Amino acid sequence: MFTKILIANRGEIAVRIMRACKELGIKTVAVYSSADQNAQHVRFADQAILLGDATPKESYLNADKLVAAALQTKADAIHPGYGFLSENASFALAVESADLTFIGPSADSIRAMGDKAESKIAMKKAGLPTIPGFEGTGRESSAELMRMAKEIGYPFLVKAAAGGGGKGMRVVNNESEFNEAIESARSEALNSFGDERLLIEKYLPNAHHIEFQIFGDKNGNLVHLFERECSVQRRHQKMIEETPSPILTPKLREEMGQAAVDAAKAVNYYNAGTIEFIVDPLRSTFYFLEMNTRLQVEHPITELVTGFDLVQWQIRIAAGEDFPFKQMDFHQRGHAIECRIYAEDPANGFLPSTGKLLQFIEPAGPGIRVDSGFATGSEVTHFYDPLLAKLIVHAENRAAAIQRMQTALREFIVHGVVTNIDFMQTVLAHPDFAQGKVTTSWVEENFKEWNAVEPSVECLIAAALAEIVLADSKPRSAVSNETDPFNPWKLANNFRVSDK
Amino acid sequence: MKVTFDSQSLEINPSEGGYIAILNGKSVSIKIQRADALRGRMDLLIDGQRVNAHVSSEGAKRWVTINGQTLMLTKTSGAKRGVRHDHAGGLIAPMPGQVRSVAVGVGDVVKKGQTLLTMEAMKMEIRIQALKDGVVSTLPVQVRQTVERGQILIEIVDGLER
Questions:
Q1: How many CB atoms neighbour CB A325 within 10 A?
Q2: Nearest C-alpha of chain A: how many angstroms from B27?
Q3: A372 CB-contact burial (10 Å; exposed 0-12 / middle 13-18 / buried 19+)
Q4: According to DSSP H, which parts of A194-340 are helical?
Q5: Could you give the angle at the alpha carbon of A240 between the alpha carbons of A238 and A245, nearest 5°?
Q6: What is the ipTM of this complex?
Q7: Which of A30, A155, A181, A361 qualifies as a cystine partner to A45, CB 3.0-4.6 A?
Q8: Is B143 on the interface with A (CB under 8 A)?
Q9: Cα angle for residues B127, B131, B136 (degrees, 5° grid)
Q10: What is the pLDDT of residues B44-100, one digit of tens each?
C-alpha cells in the first residue's frame, strides 16, 4: 500500500480523496495556487505545496510542477480527482515515467476514450448502440457535412471531436443555421482544443442522461455499480443527480449495465470509470454517449446506495490489490439524490457569483452527507469551478429522499455569494421532477425567466435589525465576552471545567 | 430610525423591551428573544410569530436567510433610490471575472452583433457583443484585467451620419 499520496486537485474533491487516504492510514499532500492558500483542502492535508499563480496553467494544470511536487515530498502516487488533468493521457504517462503511480486507468484507456469521434467508432465495433451520426476526419468541406447532416435529419448536434464541458457544441434546428453553427463550432474547437475535427449526430431533445458507474482491476475483474440519472442540467452541465433512475425498468437496467461493462472491456479498462448514455424514454432505447475515464463528481450517490467506497477502492486497486467482488455482490439499497451547490445566480442566467463566504453553515442529520471544500471566511474566486459543495441524501425510497433533500436544503445557509439553493427547491417541488419526467433540456425550457422572491416583511425587519443588534454587539464581543448571553464563565452556577 | 433596502423603506424604533417597525403604514411589534452576533443568528417574535433568521452584513449588502430562503438586500442612502446610469451604448460585465480578449480599439467602427470582447469566469466563457452599430468611444478595460459584475467594459456611440 502507498505511504503518501499527492492530490492534484482542489476544493471538495481534494478533501474527499484526503478523507479516504486518512481512513487507509496514508499521508496526504495538497497542492495549491496563490488564490487558495487558506483553502480547506490545504488545511486538511498533512503537507501542502504551493504550485504558483492562480491561473490554472500555472498551478493545477501544470503537469511538470505537480510531478516535481510529488517527488519533492516523496509521495508514491498521484490522485488527479476530476477535471484539471484527470483525463489527460500525457499527464498519466508523465506520472508513471517519474516512477509514481497514477490513481486511475491506463494512459491508453484515457486516450482511447478521450476522443469523441474515435471512441464512438470503437464503441460501435464493440457492439454498443451509438447515436446516428457522422464522425468526420476534419477535412470535409461544408458541402459534404451538409449532405451528411441531411441524411441524419434536423435537429442535429455539432460537437468538437476533442471536446468536453459543452465547448464547441451547437444545436442545428434547420438549414439556415447550418453554416454559422459549423463555422463557430470549428473555430471554438480549434481555439479550445487545437483540433478542428467535428462530429455530427442526431439531437435528441427529450432524452434522459443516464450513466453507469463501472469499476475493475488490472486482471479484468469488471463490474458495474448501477446507474445515475443526471437529466437536470443547465448549459449541458449537471445540477441534480439521483439513483436509481426513476425511468429505468429492471430489463433496461440490466441491458445498459451489460453494455457499460462491454464498453469498458473493449478498452481494457481498470479503476473507476463512467459510461454515459442517452435514453429515449418513449422508445426505451439507449445510445452510448461518451466515457469519463476518472472519478465522477456525482460518485457519492453510488456510494450511498451500494455501500461501496469508490475512492478507497480506487487507491487499493492502484496499489495492486485484486478486486474481490462479483456483479452479484452489488445491490441498490434505497434512493440517493445529490444537489450541486453552485456559486451562481439563477436569476442572472446561472452566471457565476464570487466573493467571500460570510456564513457557510452545512446541514446535518440522518442520511445527509455534505462533500464541501469551503467554510465561513473562504474566498470564492473567478479562477475555478463554481461548485461550493455537494449535498447528498440517502433514504429508503425516492419520495423520502426528495423530502430529506428539501429539509436539508432549508438548513444550508450560504451568505456572501449567490447560490442556486432556492432554485434547487423550485426544481425538487416541481411535479415534473416528482414524476421523473425531467429531460436534459427541461431547465432551459421551463426556467428561461427565473426570479428570486421579493423580500418579505420579516426579511426586511431582520435586515434592519442587523444594523442594531449585530453591528452593535460585534466589536464588543471581539474584545470581551460581555454580550454573549451563553458564556459559561459568566454563569452564576457551579459550572467548572473539571471537578478533579 | 429609517432604513431603506433596494426600494423598500421601513422605520424601526425601540419600544418597551423590543422594537416597533412601520412598513407601508402598518406597524409591527418585534421582540428579540436571542441574538448570536458571531453566527449572525436572531430568534425574533414578530407580531407574536416566531421567526428564526440568519443575517450577515458586508458593506451595504445584507444577506438574510429565513425558512431556508436566502435573499441579498442592498442598503441604500435612505432618502432616494440609487439612480442607475443608463448606458444605452455601454456594455457592462454580466458577471465577475477576467477579460480574456479584446477584439476592438477606441475609434473602431462596429456592427450590431459583433463580438467586442470575451470574458471568462469559473471555466465559462462569454462573448460581449455590440447591441447596435456605432463607434467605440471608450474602452476602460484590458486583457487579463479582473472586473466586477456591473462594471463598464466598453461604450459605443452612434457613428457619423452619412
A1: 16
A2: 11
A3: buried
A4: 250-266, 299-306, 310-318
A5: 105
A6: 0.84
A7: A30
A8: no
A9: 85
A10: 999 999 999 999 999 999 999 999 999 999 998 754 443 343 445 678 888 889 998
